[in-house]
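lol ok so funny story. i was supposed to be doing the assay writeup but got distracted and ended up predicting the structure for this chain instead. priorities right. anyway since i did it might as well share w the group, maybe its usefull for someone
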Amino acid sequence: MIRRDFIKTIGAASLSTSIGRYHNEGKTHLISFSFDDGFKKSFNRVAEIHENYGLNACLNVIATAHLPNFKAIDEWILPELMGDFNNWNSLIARGHEVMPHTWEHLNLTKISEKKAKKNIDKCLDYFSTHLDGYDDSKAVYNYAYNASNNDLDKHLLQRIRAIRTGGWIVLNDTQSNDIPKPKGKMKLGCQMHFQPDNCDHWIEDQVNTYLSSKGGWLIINLHGLDDEGWAPVSTKYYDGMLKKLMEEPKVSIKAVGEYLS
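and the output, tada:
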């Protein structure tokens, strides 16, 4: 058995066990904190924080961000800050979830449909080759800018398990997703901060509003910690928030792919 298949096998067994416990716990408020882009320092720290609470981090990376020709995107996604697939495979081996976050971080709704679909396919093919245990049938594709359309969604869902896009497109009236089903394709919406500044207070508002609702599945889209990425969350706040949520009897916290397994 090669290493990639071994990782896939133990990962599937682990997810199956955790989901079984989730169904028996009767949780009503599911939460996923979905981190985008692939900042090496932040993603390793996020993983460590999650490990302290027995949780797996949900990490989504740009396929080409580690390559020499990758260019800075605005002032937030800088080549020198990005990790590579050695980093991501190391985190996979520790039980964390790493999923596709586009080929080169383009807004696919602002380029031709042909180019957008080619961009998608290159991204998924690269993950298939370079990420240990990657499996299209279990993959979640996380759109850059959470920007999608029906044609791109249809193209993706012919190949993968789920997509994550803007909450304004698919969320229900409680601003959360429906409880995930064990089978079938899913189009998931998320909440994201629309300003580049620190988002600690915004997260607090989102979580408190959600906890006062009837429940469902809240996906909060984040990026880096402290001074990295768009709308960073401070390390101290994020750690304390996870600790607080772990004490909530109605709350379950898992990576997006874990809930779908």
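Confidence is low (pLDDT under 50) at residues 1-24. The first helix runs from residue 3 to 25.
back to the writeup now i swear
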